[in-house]
Structure formats: C-alpha cells, structure tokens
Design brief:
Elements lengths: L1 E7 L4 E2 L5 E5 L12 E8 L12 E2 L6 E3 L4 E5 L14 E12 L4 E12 L7
Parallel strand pairs: 1-9, 2-9
Antiparallel strand pairs: 3-7, 4-5, 4-8, 6-7, 8-9
C-alpha cells in the first residue's frame, strides 16, 4: 500500500530565503510514525533541473530534515533550495518530493510539496 499526499503553497516564497516546512507522516489509518527511510528530491517543474543536489537524497535526520516518532517532519530549507534557476523567469514552480518506507520496506508513502518561488531582481546571485 502506498500513501501519497500533496501540498501546494499558494503564497509566493522570495528566492534565496529559508522557510521552515512542516508536515506529518501518517499510515493508512492516519496514525503518525517514524519511517524506516526518507528521501528528498527537489526540482524545477518547467526545466526538470534538480535544486541543491537533492535527487533522492537521504534525509533521515540529515540535510536540514528531522522526523520524530510521531511522524512530524521539519525541513529547515536552505537558500539553495529556494534558488531561481532561470534568471528570466519572474516565478518558478519547484516541487519537493519526500518518499518514505515502513513495515520492513513493504509499505511506501510520498508527499509532494509545490512551491512558487519569486525572482527578486535585486537579490545578488
């Protein structure tokens, strides 16, 4: 059984800022738990380019991500996570895909986070 969730952040995030993202990992019954594995992939929707080398990156209590026994995930993003990749775009859509497993790897879940990152022309690269 796979559990998938999607969150769209409608508020625009200024480029190179470091928002703190939180959500809860739950099983089929809605009970929070700590997964066996947790990976993060972060990419630009239009170009498909990866951001900040986050391509199925292991983030079990690493790379700015923590998860507790109740499945509460906290991702303290870095400026590189919210970078604009195409200088001519005023707004980029980025997606973070978090994937996890539990029950000895027989069950899997996913959570997509969609961000709208605003290009601030006055922010030095």
């Amino acid at each position: 059984m796979s559990v998938t969730h999607r969150t769209v952040f409608n508020e625009q995030i200024p480029e190179l800022t470091t928002p703190r993202i939180t959500f809860q990992i739950v099983d089929e019954a809605g009970t929070g738990f700590e997964p066996s594995t947790l990976t993060l992939t972060l990419y630009n929707v239009k170009t498909g380019a990866m951001l900040n080398s986050r391509d199925h990156q292991n983030v079990v209590d690493a790379a700015g991500v923590t998860v507790d026994a109740q499945g509460q995930v906290v991702w303290q993003t870095s400026a590189e996570d919210m970078a604009i990749l195409v200088a001519t775009e005023s707004l980029e859509v980025h997606v973070a895909l978090l994937e996890w497993s539990w029950s000895l790897g027989t069950k899997h879940g996913k959570h997509e986070l969609e961000f709208h990152v605003r290009n601030l022309t006055e922010v030095p690269a």
